[in-house]
Every structure is written in structure tokens, then in C-alpha cells.
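> call design_seq(struct)
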């Protein structure tokens, strides 16, 4: 294996740079919908399911239904992402990951144009869909599974890696810990950006997230597969 084969391209689908950009978008979208759209989480369906259960348990059936559409949209997005991965569609799209980035970017641009009086459920459904196709398509950081739209699993992985690095002096675990904490920080950064921009710019602030995705789309080149590090 040559030296060039040991290096993950800077904007490959499993690179830290692309993962960081997507994590910023993930944090941004969650705060955007929570602040501007009925306190609904577009990315974290666990939160929506919990809120749904709370409303049902309290007998508030009317408001419980606002949490169902984003859950269903998330489910649909995962199905579509899996369909796009089929061999025939992959060949037609040339790079299905690039196609997914383009789809995400277009949906967010459209959402920014929607008037304020449009039902919030329309927006939360669109963003839940974007989140689900992103999480299904970009799910590797280097050679490890990760999540760019939620952070609980990433925090667990980073903590486990930190333990192995500190107790067992594991170099790979140290690298893993650093990369996952970068992703967590970027998610936090995206949430801060989403909060500040949504409070000041309103609904059109989502174009900032679309702009980040557009940057990722421009820089991203077709991934030739996951590159393995030798000696690990």
C-alpha cells in the first residue's frame, strides 16, 4: 500500500473536514426548528417521541400530533437514502453522496423562502427529511461509525476512546477521541450559530446552513471507498 493510499482525501465522505461541516449543519438545524417552529426537534427523533408521549399522557391530543410528521419524514428519508444507494441508481448518479448533498442544499434553500404564516409542520417535515438522508448517507468518520445530526452516541464513543487512550495508551483510541470531540464541538458550534442567527434573522437564517452544505458540495470529490490505515 502506497503512502497516498494511507491518506483519506480531505473531503472524502469519511473525512474529519466533511464530518465537521455536516455536524455544524446538524446542530444548526436542531436549534432552528426548536426556536422558530413549535419547539420541535428536526434531527433528534428521540426528543420528539418523548414529547409526543408527554402530550399523550397529559391528554393533550391536539398538540401531540405536531410531533408525528417529523418522525414519519425521518423514516421516509432513511428509506429514500437506502434506495439511492442501490447499484443502478448509484451508477446513474455517478456519486450518490454528492447528489444527497445537493438535495439537502436545495431543500434548505426552499425552506428559507417559505413565508412565516405557512404551517410549522411543513418546515419541520422538510428538515427532518434532510436530517435523515444525511445521517443515512454520511455515517463514517474515518473507519468509525458516527452521527452528524445528533451527539449522544458521539459523546459515548469519545468517552470510551478517551478511557482507552488514557488507561491503555492506545494511539488509535487517542486519534479517535480527538476526532469525535471535534465533531461534538462542531455540533455545539452549529447550535450556537443556529440560535444566534435564528433570533436575529428569522426563518431565512436557514440559508446559512444551506451555504455550509453548498461549500461541502463544491469541495467534495467523489470518494473512491474507505481508505484503511496501515499498521493499525
Amino acid at each position: 500500500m502506497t503512502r497516498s493510499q494511507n491518506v483519506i482525501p480531505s473531503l472524502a465522505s469519511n473525512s474529519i473536514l466533511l464530518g465537521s461541516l455536516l455536524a455544524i449543519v446538524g446542530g444548526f438545524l436542531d436549534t432552528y426548528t426548536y426556536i422558530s417552529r413549535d419547539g420541535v426537534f428536526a434531527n433528534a427523533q428521540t426528543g420528539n417521541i418523548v414529547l409526543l408521549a408527554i402530550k399523550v399522557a397529559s391528554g393533550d391530543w391536539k398538540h401531540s400530533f405536531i410531533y408525528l410528521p417529523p418522525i414519519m419524514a425521518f423514516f421516509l428519508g432513511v428509506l429514500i437514502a437506502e434506495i439511492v444507494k442501490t447499484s443502478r441508481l448509484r451508477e446513474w448518479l455517478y456519486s450518490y453522496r454528492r447528489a444527497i448533498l445537493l438535495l439537502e442544499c436545495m431543500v434548505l434553500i426552499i425552506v428559507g423562502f417559505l413565508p412565516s404564516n405557512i404551517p410549522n409542520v411543513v418546515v419541520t417535515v422538510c428538515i427532518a427529511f434532510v436530517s435523515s438522508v444525511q445521517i443515512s448517507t454520511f455515517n463514517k468518520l474515518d473507519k468509525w461509525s458516527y452521527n452528524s445530526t445528533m451527539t449522544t452516541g458521539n459523546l459515548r464513543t469519545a468517552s470510551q476512546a478517551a478511557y482507552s487512550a488514557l488507561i491503555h495508551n492506545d494511539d488509535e483510541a487517542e486519534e479517535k477521541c480527538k476526532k469525535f470531540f471535534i465533531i461534538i464541538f462542531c455540533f455545539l458550534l452549529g447550535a450556537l450559530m443556529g440560535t444566534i442567527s435564528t433570533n436575529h434573522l428569522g426563518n431565512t437564517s436557514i440559508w446559512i446552513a444551506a451555504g455550509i452544505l453548498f461549500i461541502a458540495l463544491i469541495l467534495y470529490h467523489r470518494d473512491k471507498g474507505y481508505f484503511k490505515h496501515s499498521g493499525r
